[in-house]
Specification:
The protein is about 30% helix and about 35% strand. The protein has about 150 residues and is α+β, with helices and mostly antiparallel strands. Strands 1-2-3-4 form a four-stranded antiparallel β-sheet, sandwiched between helices. The chain has a three-stranded antiparallel β-sheet with strand order 5-6-7, covered by helices on one side. The longest helix has 27 residues.
Length: about 150
């Protein structure tokens, strides 16, 4: 049986308690609601979806699946936000580390996503998971495009 997104985020938070994130269960539910039947979560973590280190009220769960990256945020009142980044839209990843916290920047064709207030000790893990997945996925897209052209 595969782990729920919430359990993966809890495990991440236990490994990296300095990461600032709230409402783990509610934010995880947004991701789980939008998973496709053939989609499985490979890795999940919590962060703030903003570039302001003092704004700690925009927690989001980030999930890397076998098809895309999902970023889910449950609103306090009604509704939620969901971002989906497929490998063909992904451009680059940038990581910056400070004294205690760091940021992960995901550059896509349409937008620039900033994830902040992440424990400095978690940055290497996040970069490895996302980069290695995206490199493999991009190869598949490139191979598929070459097959279609020939």
């Amino acid at each position: 049986m595969e782990k729920s997104v919430y359990k993966m985020v809890l495990e991440f938070k236990e490994r990296h308690p300095w990461t600032i994130g709230w409402r783990l269960k509610q934010n995880s539910s947004v991701i789980e609601m939008h998973l496709n039947p053939d989609e499985e979560v490979i890795y999940a973590f919590i962060a703030q979806k903003n570039d302001n280190p003092f704004n700690i009220f925009e927690s989001a769960v980030v999930a890397l699946t076998n098809k895309r990256i999902l970023i889910g945020r449950k609103r306090v009142a009604i509704g939620y936000y969901l971002n989906s980044i497929t490998p063909d839209m992904y451009n680059d990843l940038k990581v910056t580390g400070g004294l205690f916290w760091g940021k992960v920047y995901i550059d896509t064709i349409k937008e620039f996503v900033t994830l902040s207030n992440i424990s400095k000790m978690a940055l290497r893990e996040i970069e490895t998971e996302i980069s290695s997945y995206m490199m493999e996925a991009k190869k598949k897209y490139k191979d598929r495009e070459e097959d279609e052209e020939s």
